[in-house]
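Batch 3, record 17
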Amino acid sequence: MPLLPDEILRRLSDRFGDKVRPGKSPGSGQVIALVAREHIRPILAHLRDDPELAFDFLVDVTAVDHLQLELPEMEGHRFAVVYILRSLRRNHIFEVKARVPEDDPVIPSVQDLWKSALWGEREAHDMYGIEFEGNPDMRRLLMPEDYPGFPLRKDYPLRGRGERDAFPQYRPPRISAGSGEAKETAP
Amino acid sequence: MGIEKIFGDSVITTSVQAVVNWARKNALWPMPFGTACCAIEMMATLSGRYDMSRFGAEVIRFSPRQSDLMIVSGRISIKMMSVLLKIWEQMPEPKWCISMGACASSGGVFDTYTLVQGVDQFLPVHVYIPGCPPRPESLLDALLKIREIVDGTVANAGVSPETVPEPVKGST
Amino acid sequence: MSEATGTKGERGLSPIEFEDLRRGHAQDPSYRGEHPEPRFFVTDEEVDEFGGKRMALNLGPQHPATHGTLRVMLELEGEKIASADTEIGYLHTGFEKSAEHMTYHQWITLTDRMNYMSAINNNVGYAIAVEELLGIEVPRRAQVLRVILCEITRIADHILCLGLQGMDMGAFSLMLWAFERRERIYDIIEAVTGARLTTSYTRIGGLFRDVPPDFPEMARTFGRDFPRFLDELEGMTIGNRIFEDRLRGTGRISPEDAVSWGLTGPILRACGVAYDVRKAKPYSGYERYDFDVPVREEGDSWGRYLQRIAEVRQSLRIIEQALGDLPDGPVNIDNKKIVLPEKGEVFDNIESLIHHFKLIMFGHGITPARGGEVYSATEAPNGELGFYIVSDGDMVPYKVRVRPPSLYNYAIFPKLIIGAMISDAVAVLSSLNIIAGELDR
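Prediction for the assembled complex:
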């Protein structure tokens, strides 16, 4: 029988006390559990291992940049890392958020709990610049390796800062016609 | 061609040139550089209903060394631009380029940090096809226009493979 | 117009230089078999088993066998793959960033371009997410039409995957047949939405417009003729020694791995896990229709091939039931704050003009509650397509995150092909149905 998100939140609060702050979204009624980043690993491990909850499927890892959306529960933290969990056996879904400050954007990785976190965290790092400790592969996923900046941050403009006009690229060798050899003129 | 050196500019070379152009335009081998949605429409053009092999252009071998018409279909990001330029350079001359769709021609609906706003900043484009994605008939029309460019019926509007724009921006 | 001179060094074939490549490129001359980036799939014991010299090969971003722009860097021992790594992002477009600068309605046009094989599924997924954020429900006619069109485009996506799988195995006719059938689907979609591929058909609160009156007849004819194509496809491939042997046994995924790596869709169901969003959390009226969720046990490319054929058959069942279920009525919800009024009324009475103004001009528009957020998932042909939307009370969303099924389906790929041959790698890649537009967004 699937548990409702309110019930899951209540069980989490019973077990972890005030480490879990409940939240409810206006409009959609989505239930959220807000935690501090130090407690994210034990809470997620409990969600996975508890036989009643049994969240064996990590749907997505993403982040929200609250630079322009000041919410009271964010309290000086800029990023919120969002974990969306699903239980295939019990058929319920739940969302956990962890707050991450701007000057120290580090959070422990959960890639040993669910392998899908490997690429989910890579993309959150690529787009927001959040470091996930414990993820063995923190290369950029979508942007070029040497790209300066994290695109989905709110202070990054839509059209970029000129990278799309000045990017490293393959240069063909300049060959002058009429001679039998390739002259390498400096491009 | 070597024959021009021997005979210079005489009636023999112009006749030979006419025959060569006729052969080229009827057997254009496209190099489909398909990245996104336009690639599906290009594949549909190559398939049964809108048949591109009527015009002799069904040989797509994905090898730039053996093709002479590049069809850039789909959005080109800054990561992909180097690859596109390398493939273009690997194609032997004479070569022509069709920029298919809005994204390849001008960036399309996406005016973002990561898309090249038109491949004509880096490649000499001979025919642009608007549309998102363009209908297969548009691609066939573009192919017919390329045929007119190949055999000289239509002036080349100043775009020729010699004038490859210098990719000066950025470092290697 | 210039001529090919043919003499080396003149205008013609130009040498390709390799020094200016980025660090870590497989054909970098300083590459000596030690991958500079971390390799975490091959241990030292496995390396000894191969012995001998290794070659680095790049199935580069432009390659006929990679569907879209993927780069796979292989290390080969002869023909066997010793280790593999992959790089994506060659089609990254910035969809999510664009969403923060476009209104909710404007972004619908961008949703088609993600999974461009089945555009209506993306439209419906996004519309359902925003409708959940606003807390509204569309009329039943809109729901049924969404179901019918979703299933039609799901069939289009699956048969294209099957056709391209055939093409990668060398059976080129399968691709041509698949494209012919897709053209018939395009005819239906064009009659309904006006466009073949990028439809932008749904609106928040309903649909763009009602279907033409002969749509049920068109869909019924399509549903009657289609099983014949499936029978032809099965006749060509099942029992075909070459086809079967190339696909059997390649890219086997265990159910535990599939769940841990976040796979969804036909890939997960071909491993034995019966998870379908349409059954787990039904949306848009799917709970009213009777269809099975086919599940196979093999978990390899052959299982995925048969899985997609079985899913197409189930989709045909759903279409037939939904056509019988189609009620009359409006296709748009009757809420003037969300749905644009009819153009005739806009020009006739002042109230509709005001509503039109309020929906289009800046500062107004569809405004969900501030701080509202939603995660809503639908079953796209590739798997679970989720939209996570955060709103700040403005007419422009604060954040839109697309949970792409192809991304998580592709993450497991480098691990699957270790020990296989290059042609098996191609077979596995085509069976995963990676759409680059969705992978990179």
